[in-house]
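Weekly structure sync, notes
Attendees: PL (lead), two postdocs, one rotation student
Agenda item 3: pending single-chain targets
PL asked that the sequence for the first pending target be pasted directly into the notes so everyone works from the same version. It is reproduced below exactly as submitted, 273 residues in total.
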Amino acid sequence: MTEKNKLLTIGQFATLHGINKKTLMWYDEIGLFAPALIHPENGYRYYTYHQSSILETILLLRELDVSIKEIQDFMKHRSAASLKCLLDEKITDLEQRIAHLKGIQKTLYSQRQNMITLLTMDLSEISLIQREARNLVTVEIQSDISFDKEVELITAETKKYQLRRLHDACYGTMISVEDLYHGNFQNYSRLFIEIPFPIQEHADLFHQPGGTYLRAFHKGDFQGISFKYQEILNYANERNLRLSGFSYEMGINESVIDHLDDYITQIEIPISM
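Predicted structure, written out during the meeting:
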């Protein structure tokens, strides 16, 4: 624009910034952003191009969900220092929101993959897959603590990592391979929840290693899963495969069934190479 001092009508100025002119009228009424000139005879509002940067700052702050009150306070004491302080705070909030949305995205991908698996799976098949390493929040399963209490404990743990709800991530149970080799197929040792977004290493997190895993599926209640584990052990023994670490169990169809008899558990166990 060559004539930067030229007065713009409220309609022109609103169009320039992609907003409704009623928004500009409201900003003026609440004392947040006034026009450069109000015509004394007809009351028409006029703005200059030089006001654009101020309005864009207000619009940016509104897009970041900064309240009108906060913006009004900032405008009364506008300075480089106060804007930096406000932006620092909102950048931190935005980074947390982005991390949360990325976590939700990863969970959605995982759930979609579960549905693809359901549509294409062979329940009798035992296969080898590649799995990436991941960080888990875990809680030890103790015989003197109820399942409800264990869920309460692990939910409390996840809140330390800004995980808002249990269903924001994949979750399941763990049983040691040592117990499997001793035939203790019901001796579960931990509950786990995956942290679905990148996070720095933390002493309280359990690191599930990446690598080759044996994968199998069990349909029905948990009492019958012992037979599936025996199948897995036979499969591994016939192929000279050595299982290691833990077996990771996770339900993959909870959201699309009504009866426990239809429940499908995915079992994944690391292979020691």
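Discussion points:
- The two ends are 68 Å apart (CA to CA).
- The first helix runs from residue 10 to 16.
Action: rotation student to compare against the earlier draft before next sync.
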